Amino acid sequence: MPPALTFYKYFTWSNSTEPFYFNFPNELPYMDHFNMGHYIVVQSLIAPIFFCSALFLAMKSMVYYSLIKYVSLMFKLVIKRIELLDNSVTIGGGSRLEYAVDDVIRAHYLALR
């Protein structure tokens, strides 16, 4: 439960016979579930960890997305070079064709790396 709602429920707790139970997101040693100070300590430790974890996950997803976009653009470049290679076969031949094939192979190898 979010801390704001927990504090609201704590201060509006009307049952005097039963103490208010704080529900911690995970079990830490020496933490009392009936003490508000312990709950504040746990929340102050856990909240930044959750935030940093979400931030790193978002950054990791952006890196993967950019890598996928980069590789797809590299393969599109290889396709364009293959199309140019088809045109060069009809125009000229010989060593120019071998150089173009080697260039396409290098570009494909670079895209696979």
Summary tags:
mainly alpha, 113 residues, 3 helices
Describe this structure in words.
The model has no long low-confidence stretch (mean pLDDT 78). The protein has one domain (33-112). It is 73% helix and 0% strand. It has 113 residues and is mainly α. It contains 3 helices and no strands. The longest helix has 56 residues, at 36-91.
Helix content: over 70%
The first-to-last residue Cα distance is 46 Å
Global mean pLDDT: 78
Q: Output the number of helix runs.
A: 3
User: Uncertain spans, ≥5 residues at pLDDT below 50?
Assistant: none
Rg, nearest Å: 31 Å
Total number of β-strand segments? Answer: 0
Q: In this structure, how is the largest beta sheet organized?
A: none
Indicate how many domains the architecture comprises.
1
Strand content: under 5%
User: What overall form do the CA principal axes indicate?
Assistant: rod-shaped
Order of helices and strands: HHH
Summing up helix and strand content along with how strands pair, one would put the structural category as mainly alpha
